[in-house]
Amino acid sequence: MPTYNKLVRDQIIDIIEKDGLHCNYRILNEQEHLQEIKKKLYEEVKEYEQTSNETDALEELADLLELIHAALSVHNKSFDDLETVRRKKLEQRGGFQKRLFLIDVEDE
């Protein structure tokens, strides 16, 4: 029997059981949930990094976005709250559209 020990999407248990399989799982408390969301974010970033086509990249970005929504819920914040912070940072520091790659900064 494979061991996973990881956060899974809400319907995965139902899918496993519909396939006629048995699985063991538990409900995480809020602190554990946030910890597992953080771990899953790293996992999904690695998967995004390994993509080689637009379709797979979009799938992994969707997973990242879903985890961001989950993390916002744990922090009792909305996507609008996040978007407000994003826009403020965009206005103050810019985005990443110009593809700037900083090499070094001279000391005075």
Describe the fold and architecture:
This protein is mainly α. It has a domain at 28-93. 58% of the residues lie in helices and 0% in strands. It contains four helices and no strands. The chain has helices at 12-18, 30-49, 54-74, 79-93. α2 runs antiparallel to α3. The chain is elongated and about 65 Å long. The model has no long low-confidence stretch (mean pLDDT 96). Keywords: Coiled coil, Hydrolase. GO terms for molecular function: hydrolase activity.
Order of helices and strands: HHHH
How many helical stretches?
Answer: 4
Compute the gyration radius: what is it? 19 Å
Strand content: under 5%
**Low-confidence spans:** none
Estimate the global geometry from the Cα principal axes. Answer: elongated
How much helicity do the residues have? 55-70%
Cα-to-Cα separation, first versus last residue? 61 Å
Overall structural class, as computed from helix and strand content, comes to: mainly alpha
Mean pLDDT: 96
Largest sheet: none
Based on DSSP secondary structure assignment, what is the total number of beta strands?
0
InterPro entries: MSMEG_1276-like_NTP-PPase_dom
Organism: Lysinibacillus antri
Coiled coil: 31-58
GO molecular function: hydrolase activity
List its traits.
108 residues, 58% helix, mainly alpha
How are the secondary structure elements laid out?
Blueprint: H1 12-18, H2 30-49, H3 54-74, H4 79-93
Helix pairs in contact: 2-3
